[in-house]
Amino acid sequence: MPFAPSGGAGVRAVVAKRYEHDDPDLSEIVGLAEAAGYEVVATRTQKRTEDAAYHFGEGKVQQLAQLCRQRDADALIVDNEVGPYQKFNVGQTVPEGVEVIDRFTLILEIFGQRAQTRKAQLQVELAELRYELPRAEAKTSLAKRDERPGFMGLGEYDESREEDIKAQIARIRDELDRIADKEETRREQRRESGFDLVALAGYTNAGKSTLLRRLADDLDVDENADRHPDLDDTAASEDRLFTTLGTTTRRADTGKREVLVTDTVGFISDLPHWLVDSFDSTLASVYHADLVLLVVDASESVEAMREKLVTSHDTLYERNEAPIVTVFNKIDRVAQSELRRKREALSALAPTPVSVSGRTGENVGRLRARIEDELPEWSEERLLLPVSDEAMSLVSWIHDNGHVTREEYEGDSVQVAFEARPAVVEQARARATDLERQTEVR
Predict the structure, then answer these.
(1) Are 278 and 366 in the same domain?
(2) Average pLDDT over every residue of 80-103
(3) Residue 294 near residue 312 (C-beta atoms within 8 A)
(4) Residue 5 domain-assigned?
(5) DSSP 3-state of 110
(6) For residue 2, is it within any domain?
(7) Alpha carbon distance 129, 161 (integer Å)
(8) Average pLDDT of the chain to the nearest whole number
(9) pTM (whole model) above 0.70
């Protein structure tokens, strides 16, 4: 694969960011660097327009190079997308051995470290190839134009490399499509078995995995090859980014309905479309759910919450058809007065949020009730069955796959009234019809 994980214990990094408008928040990029295993030893910013040759101003790059020497840094992490020509120039300025890593290379590095399942590994490889393709095209184009291999320090070019990358992308997409087809079949089988599918979405580190643990009961759902490798019976929760890369599905008790809740990869700010599209297979768990819980960290500033809500809505509403419930998580870290202020300030984006604490369990009962209210309505049915072993088996199946409101025995018949997903009701009717035919034959 194009990228090999570089971070690890003792790997020191200087973090830098160029910005043009609002003051930058470096907390996310520092968190990303630490998630990749780097020790951040210094941070710097520069307010200016992008320099075509160095990204930063040339003088700023000299300062960063000096800082890398002073702090004995192994890497310079830039919280922007850095072009190949810019990266080469900066790399020539910093001390020998200091690796220049831009934001998206860092994210791909983390994905590569966390990818354990075949699907996750394929998606990481796809993202890396999509990142590399325009750079390979640039090398070929510039070298052809100037008839100089290695023009502008971009290295030797090979026209066949473009075609090779495109062929690999096509191969990976085909394999991911086959995996997606299998997952869609499994989703439909679960629906036919009476399960409603709920997806957790939101930014990384919003507390989705902790909330999943609160919602899940003790039963584990077999995810086969897609099961999260770091989990036992419930999802892990750690205060770091990208704890969850693959999907994790658990059975949750919300009341009368059988619900499967899926946690998936968290959103990250300023992601290009090519990177989001590379993880389309994982996000399908969100796009094809019956209900989406959009989890937001309520301990963050109103401005940060608003920005993340807007970006999440752009991602979800473009592809998702299910209702979306906004969940303000981590309220144990927020005073009630501050929480009220945030709810009012964000009412246009989140008119009726549910405020919870996944860590303490506060208001999780309200969230369970809201899930029940927002899921697609069930159909009601009433069946009159002859008492027999087959009928008792059907009644037991209805109990397992729906919600029985009445079960009455009179003479040699049993009447069962229940609510269930339309597919379950249809299946129950078909089985009841078969029982009637068998009784007539006898």
Answers:
(1) yes
(2) 92
(3) yes
(4) no
(5) helix
(6) no
(7) 11
(8) 82
(9) no
